[in-house]
From TrEMBL:
This is IS630 family transposase. The lineage of its organism: Bacteria, Pseudomonadati, Planctomycetota, Planctomycetia, Gemmatales. InterPro entries: RNaseH_sf, Tc1-like_DDE_dom, Transpos_IS630-like. Residues 42-178 form the Tc1-like transposase DDE domain. It comes from the Bacteria.
Amino acid sequence: MGAIPLPPNRTIEPHMATQAEFKAAKLDPVLAQAQAGQRDVWFVDAAHFVRGCYLCAVWSLVRMMIRGASGRQRYNVLGAWNPVTRQLIWVTNATRVSSDTMIELLVRIAAAKTRATTRVLDNARYQRCAKVEAEAQRLGIALLFLTSYSPNLNLIERLWRFTKKKVLRGHTYPDFAAFQAAIDDGLDKTATEYQEEIKTLMTLRFQTFDKTSFLAA
C-alpha cells in the first residue's frame, strides 16, 4: 500500500491503534465466520478507470510517437469481492458512482445471497447514507464500515491495482468503447486466465503498521 494514509490532525500511533482494534474486534470475526461457511463477506469499493496515458517503457530502435487519450473519459466500476469463493460482482457506468449505483450492486449481491451476508466498505457519502443503509436492511445485508483512511483493510483495492497493471499499463485503445471492453474482459478473466495470480494476490493477509515499520523506513 505504500505510506500509511493519515486522517487530518491525527498522529500515527492513534491511527494504527484504531485500525488494529477495528480489525481484531470487527473484521476478523466476520472473516472467521466466512471461512467456516457461516457467512458471506464482500469487500466493496469503486474504481474510476481513466482513458489516458500510463507510464511504461517500450524499447524501440527509432523514436515513435503514440497518440494518447485526453484523460477526460472514465469508466466507473463499483465492485464486490468475496475472498472465500473468489467471486466478483460489479456494476459499471461512464457517468458517476452514486447511491443508486450502490443500491444496484446491493440488489445483485442479494440475488446471490444464501446465508448471512456482510459488506465491508469505506465511508464514501454514496455508501454511508440513509438510502443505502435502508435498502441494505431491507435486503438483510449487514454493512461493516471501515475506519477512516484504511484502504489497506479493503481487499478489493488490490484487484483494482491488478486490473490497471494488466489492462492499462503499456496499452492504448482506439476509442472509449474499446477501453471499456478491455476492462470488462480483464475483470471477467479474474475467474479464468488470471485465476492463479488472483489466488496469491487476494489473500486475507492484510498490511498493517507498527512503530517498527516506520522507524525502518
